[in-house]
Amino acid sequence: MFQSNKEYIDFLIQSGVHTFLKETPNNLLENKELKEKSVKKKDIKALEDIYEINELITLILNHKNILKKTAKKLVLYDGDLQSSLMIIGEAPGQEEDEQGIPFVGRAGQLLNKMLSAINLERKNVYITNVLPWRPPQNRTPTDQEILDFLPFLQKQIEIVKPKFIYLLGTTAAKAILSTPLSLGKLRGQWHEYKSININTPIKVLVSYHPAFLLRSPNYKKDAWSDLQMLEKKINEN
Ligand code: URA
Predict the structure, then answer these.
(1) Which of 76, 78, 126, 136 lies 20 to 30 A from 21 at CA?
(2) Structural domain spans, the chain
(3) Is the shortest distance between the CB of 107 and ligand 1 below 6 Å?
(4) How far, in Å, is the centroid of ligand 1 from the Cα of 95?
């Protein structure tokens, strides 16, 4: 009845068949956009050979991870790749996941206000997160997830080479300073981030996450004094 397989397949498509049964389940929820962006394995550079953000994006898009299955968009960074200031948050929330841009929700609006209070604009700083994919229901990232994505965050630091890093919240402090100490103990003093791939240690300041400040406005006074410390150091350099 059919002269070729192609003719048969065309007939099926015209009849409304769009999926073949397989031995394993078809993932009908798979994110098409991410799939389209994936490239041939041979074109993906290894992390140690990456010097540009676009190559890193390709690597992360092709890095197997469970969070990618539930997230909508990769959220890597916003702002200026040449900035001397890098701001690191925790992970994308719902709005960030929808737009593919970090800190665009309520916490992001507060972050914008915090920056403008020390005469900075978000377009002039580099903003990123420890995790580039939204954890389901905005849950806190696990230690395993932090470790899994840490090399990508470290690579961003090597690409941007900021002079200062401002860490927002415990997850970012844990990832960059490898410490279990509380924010209360870490804030109010300068720390250093060192890596064999970076010539000069980077000055690091830790402060409260804007989402926490929205829930606990009593801490805004401390956050303001952290911002002033940051402004002073930027102006001295
Ligand atoms: N909280 C974060 O830590 N990062 C975002 O991008 C948004 C909210």
Answers:
(1) 136
(2) 45-236
(3) yes
(4) 9
> Ligand 1: distance of its center to the CA of 206 in Å?
15
Class of domain 45-236: alpha beta
Q: Is the CB of 78 under 6 A from ligand 1?
A: no
pLDDT surpasses 90 at 12: no
Rounded Cα–Cα distance for residues 33 and 23 (Å) = 25
Q: Average pLDDT of the chain?
A: 90
Q: How confident is the model at residue 89, as a pLDDT? A: 98
pTM: 0.84
Q: Is 102 in the pocket of ligand 1 (CB under 6 A)?
A: yes
Residue with tokens 């390709």: 58
Q: Which of 67, 78, 90, 111 to mutate to test the pocket of ligand 1 (most atoms within 8 A of CB)?
A: 90
The average pLDDT across 158-174 equals 97
Rounded-to-integer distance, Cα 141 and Cα 154, Å: 17
Q: Which residues on neighbouring strands pair with residue 77, listed in sequence order?
A: 128
pLDDT at 35: 47
